[in-house]
Known about the structure:
The complex is a heterodimer of chains A (259) and B (299).
Chain A lengths: L36 H26 L13 H10 L5 E3 L5 H7 L3 H9 L32 H14 L6 E6 L6 H13 L3 E6 L3 E2 L2 E2 H4 L6 H6 L12 H12 L7
Parallel strand pairs in A: 1-2, 2-3
Antiparallel strand pairs in A: 4-5
Helix pairs in contact in A: 1-2, 1-3, 2-3, 2-9, 5-6
Chain B lengths: L1 E3 L12 H7 L3 E3 L4 H13 L4 E4 L10 H7 L3 H4 L9 E7 L14 H4 L6 E3 L4 H13 L4 E6 L23 E4 L4 E5 L3 H13 L5 E5 L2 E3 L3 H11 L2 E8 L4 H13 L8 E5 L9 H4 L3 H12 L2
Parallel strand pairs in B: 1-2, 1-3, 3-4, 4-6, 5-6, 8-9, 8-11, 11-12
Antiparallel strand pairs in B: 5-10, 7-9
Amino acid sequence: IYTSKLNFDSVSEKIPTFRVIELKGKVIAKKYDNTDTATLNKIYEKMVQLEEMDMILLQAQRQGRISFYMTALGEQACTVAVAAALNDIDLIYPQYREHGCLIWRGFTIDEFAHQCASNSRDPAKGRQMPVHYTSSKLNFVCVSSPLTTQVPQASGAGYTFKLQELDRIAVAFFGEGASSEGDFHSGMNFAATLGCQTLFLCRNNKYAISTPSDEQFKGDGVASKSQGYGMLTIRCDGNDAIAVYQACLLYTSPSPRDS
Amino acid sequence: VCQIGRYFFFFQAEDGIRDFCLSRGLGDVYKRQEQGIAAFGIGIASVGATAIAEIQFADYIYPAFDQLVNEAAKYRYRSGNQFSVGGLTVRAPYGAVGHGGHYHSQSPEAFFSHAPGLKVVIPRDCIQAKGLLLASIRDKNPVIFLEPKALYRNAEDEVPTEDYELALHKAEVVQEGKDITLIGYGTQIRVLKEAAKEAEQDGIKCEIIDLQTIYPYDIETLVESVKKTGRCIVSHEAPVTMGVGAEISAALQEKCFLYLEAPITRVCGYDTPFPLAHELVYLPDKWKVYDAIQKTVNY
């Protein structure tokens, strides 16, 4: 496609954010308000449990009883509702704020505490700082401190599942700040061009530790980058558990699509 | 199995790999992105499959450094063995080639020999290349396999067509001698052999040892030899300071101090980027090694 107009092209419209419930709880997208009650109850229960656990462990850290802690406050839906939409066999490559997925899949409070306390019951043998959880049984790859390294690894795993013709996907979580790392570019480009069975989930909480997102991005956040790679993209309200759940289902059912 | 990256554009060392992979339902992925290549390979290995990731020149392996040192090396350790990436092998051509300069001649083995959890392997010739590569691929740990690029078109041998492996962590005594031990790896073994031939004319019998596995290396074979000869030279193209030679010298003097008749000498590249026009001046050639043999024997 050629043009004889000479000017800088830029995106004029931001990608809209999908939402089923608005802030005061009123359903605004009735078409997607069809999640069964049992699932809704479990999502709610796990989100509350996650918050309670976070408050206790955060206080423990502030009191010097454990050395380090990161909460998922305000982001409970981003992980619990995603895990609800996935199959248990889907392999999660976390960043470090996805304990909601572990809680959904059955990681016990004791197991969280053992890891945070680095005691002899921690299966990782006390080698990692708190919140660096791992569970091969629950298909949750070990958290590692370096940012974004998990993203291209998830592409590799999703590619392997495709070659092996498995009904299984790899899921890469990362924060919006992490999307500035070189590994993000690698991971997305490999996945898009190779059609990996990988779902990429960006938790944009508007702060990369303490850098606000208006200092992190000049363009339209992370979603526009995804479109740039030629990938199917949804921007979703992460505080709306039903929207998150429905958005993930769009990818995971009936069968994994090329990412 | 997945072969990632392909370098037939440069060396045609892998003619037929793509057809081989596709005909057997294996993956063959070609990308120009080193950190992605390593990370993708780690991902494949993390779910139990085999990934052979190739970096076009070892000089370009550094974007993958974080993934290799912070992720691959520590995958098993940090998860208490719940996850590991043993199926990963990273191959890269390394070393002087006659005209490569600082971005096509580097020997980066020392950087990766300082990351517990990785292994580093370097073959000296065709038969070793096949045996060590198969052993590296099958080893249940991530291995960096550096291939002497100068030998791609220069080395010929009768390589057995059947499957065979050469053991990792085992150095090989390539030539026996009683007067001095010469330790090296890769292309440098040829240089040591030529220097030894010169020394032979002076009646000096050199023992030559090929490390084969650089990290973790076979200290026992080295100690046995140095206790016998009492003299030692370590030689590699990589810069002398903080190179593999530095580690071996330190370890050997610790274990063989009272057996040594002379200090251990390192005949290595200088502490400069690898030059282009002055490559022949820079390389630890047979005359520099021969000179060191003379000085050590006459100490």
